[in-house]
Amino acid sequence: MRLWTRIHSWLRAMLGRTRMENEMDAELRFHIEAYTEDLMRGGMAREEAMRRARLEFGGIERAKEECREARGLSFFETFSQDLRYGARSLRKSRGFTAVAVITLALGIGANTAIFSLVNAVLLVPLPYSKPEQLVSITGTYPKGAFVAMRNELRTMDVAAYFEGHEFNLTGRGEPVHLTATLVSAELFSVLGARAELGRTFDRGEDLPARNGYVILSHAFWQERFAGDATIIGHAVELEGVSREVVGVMPADFRFPSTKTQVWVPLDNDPRNTVAYWAGDFMPVIGRLRSGATLEQARAETRVFQSRVFQLFPWTMPASWNADVSVVRLQNGMVAEVRTRLLMLLGAVAMILMIACSNVANLTLSRAATREKEIGIRFALGAGRGRIIRQLLTESVLLALAGGLLGLLLATRGLSLLKTLLPADTPRLMEVHMDWRVLVFTAGIAILTGFLFGLAPALQSSRAALAETLKSGSRGAGMVVSQRLRGGLVVAEIAFAVLLVIAAGLLIRSFSALSHVNPGFGREHILTARITPNQSFCSDEARCIAFYRNLLDQVRGFPGTSGAALINTLPLGGRVSKRSVDVEGYVVATGQTAPLFWLNIVTPDYFQVMQIPLRWGRGFLESDVSGEPVAVITAETARRFWPKESAVGKHIRLLNDSNWRTIVGVIPDVRAYDLQRNVPNWIDGVAYVPYNPTATLEDKRVPAEMTLAIRTPSDESNLARQLSKSVAALNPEAAVSEVRSMDEVVSEAVSTPASTTLLFVAFAGLALVLGLIGIYGVLAFLVSKRTREIGIRVALGAQRQDVLWLVMKEGLLLAGVGLALGLAAAIGVTQFLASELYGVRPVDPLTYLGVAGLMAIVTLLACYIPTRRAMRVDPMVALRYE
Amino acid sequence: MDKQLDLLQGTLDMLILKAVSLGPLHGYGILLRIQQISKDRLEIQQGSLYPALYRLEHQGWITSEWGESENKRKAKYYRLTAAGKRRLQAEAENWNRMADVIAGILGTKPEEV
Asked: What's the CA gap between A833 and A406, in Å, rounded?
């Protein structure tokens, strides 16, 4: 209530300022006139009465000023006064202002850019209606289990999807290879997404014979159909199957990722037992029904998980989805990038701290030269609080200027960042600056201003209080100030050391990763995905003949020295799983047969990919039609035949009648990613020749294969020739993903590459800022102690004494900073562990290297001020003050 | 006429509150009333009266509105608010207690110690 009246009075004063001034005038005039009249009534002459009245009233202007102050108006007046004064004073010392603003702009800019990422990826709600109800179930389920889940769960409506399915679009010009996402009918309604054109899928449209539909992405619709709205209701040929286009999704609908070009309903057919219970294991999302909580959904899902085993036509391993849970969809989607983003945010926060320390140091140096100015202000009656406030206003002004420039840098940096980050970073397309980013930047700018302004302001106001005008340049305040400056530099160095160590570890890890032997040759190999329709390959002989003819033609291309096919190219992002019986391996009760990664290849695949043989032999042309054979990897051999040779042993693809003889063992190939050969749920790797018995889990020979060509010639040329050959052999087969093996491997390290690059940039920035800090402190020290050094030299001090005098200070600061930084790094780098490969977070070599690097650069930073000190001429120095 | 006393620091606010508690007054009127009640024994700096009024109004203890003075001129009248009434009461009590204590101390005779 009282607060309200104050605000009210203050608001009235602010809003009706002229009115208030007029009223104040009128009120005071009334007073003086009334008094004049009273005096005249007492017999005084008019002139004399007016004079007396004014005289007795005292200073009218002062009274008015005090009245304004009483209203609380003074806050803003003081503020604008301080602002003007600050701006003037900053303009006067341009060098200081420039260095401070640039330093702050770098710190704030880096923070703004990284925060924009964090904001868009982690903070902004998902672009679906009521995103807080959307959840993600952490397990994956086959169709059958999903359908049961859909029928039984009461806490949420669920939808399943499977991304990365390959489809050919034919019948309208050149065949196109599409990336499709298979979805259950309610995916769109669960997300609350509407079509831009037409409709989304209706309930039941994922059942066999009722699912002949497709929905297009906006981008694909534009690209292929030139945005033709009449496409709705028309049929397109997908994999030789006619499907009706029912809708087009809006441009900003990107679920599950930007890669998806079309959405096709699942085929939930229980009669196809294998596909229904063992086909693609799909992620499931859900929308909480009104009133249901996340905890209830979690509990219900766990109960469901315990029941679902009984539905399977065979025994599922008990470990399947054992730790299933339900999380917010937003968290579920970005789980992988979260750590990396937070790491980057931590790094830029440290840079900001360094920038703050640096500017605080600069401000302190400047305060030392401003002692007189501040002293005069004291003498003129300014209180300590008033001085502190003025100095703080100045630093906040400085920080805001830095923030503005930083925002500019961040806009440039952000577009760079978006191209630098791997394209599969979730929600990367949504990254842009919004009001949250602006608020964040303004917030850190103001906070920064206080952070680097407070200590110097307290310091110089205290110094001024003690010293006022009595001494020329230095006194008690200097000592404290020097200690404070030392502390700031130590903090800077410690932060810089931390960042440099992090960068060093990432570089070591990246280099280890880049030098990993992937197990195949990456040079002079061109790859391309060839995708005839699945229906074309239902006639196995036709399919195999097509590929044989294609290989013959490709081998005839000029410069080509070999060509082979494989269903899943290493590092190509595809896994083909197949349950296998292994000779002599007893499957424990409650367990399923070992799950293998089945590579189906043409005989000279190993030669083309330069994969050597460890034991036995590779495939021969005669193996295609001869006795069934297989080749396994060394890891697989070790696992199933640890004590004896695997060559000559047998395996059998589940449901296959013939056992295959293992004829050879090859070294391990990094097929899944560069860290791991295979995902952890795969038990072994086998290669079999491409023939009618080489079937996948759906009992079919793979239609889609990747062609690997050994050739020195350039891509574009070859790609054109290849397309022509494929089109001539099968007009419905598409050619896509044309890239060299080198590119495939580079893409596999694109994530660590970008993280490392960013950290190196940040560490470099931190290092430079930290060094400027040491340099600044030492230079200031030397300039303040010129006289002392002069006296020392005059009294016979040698050059090395002077050298030591200055170096000692610099090395002490750097030493303490380095020690603190190293100690902190041991703890902090644990957070990096998940990003590191082939190097431990506490890597002695990195730590030693960083310590050495810091020692060298510290010496460099000390060099210039030290040299200046050594050149001090005692005569000049003694005359100096 | 007795020699005029300088106003004790901090008491002007209390006197103003007391003056307006007797009825709405304009600034000059407040000055006159204080002088009248004090029988001209208090010296008030006229210039310091208005900042005090503005301060009291800002704190919500008095409010003001424009009215007509005795000689038909526009003048700003101040009146006590409910909060001001409580404030005046508290200040008066405080003052009286303080005055008692001081008087007690000053009235102490050597044999009483």
From this structure: 31
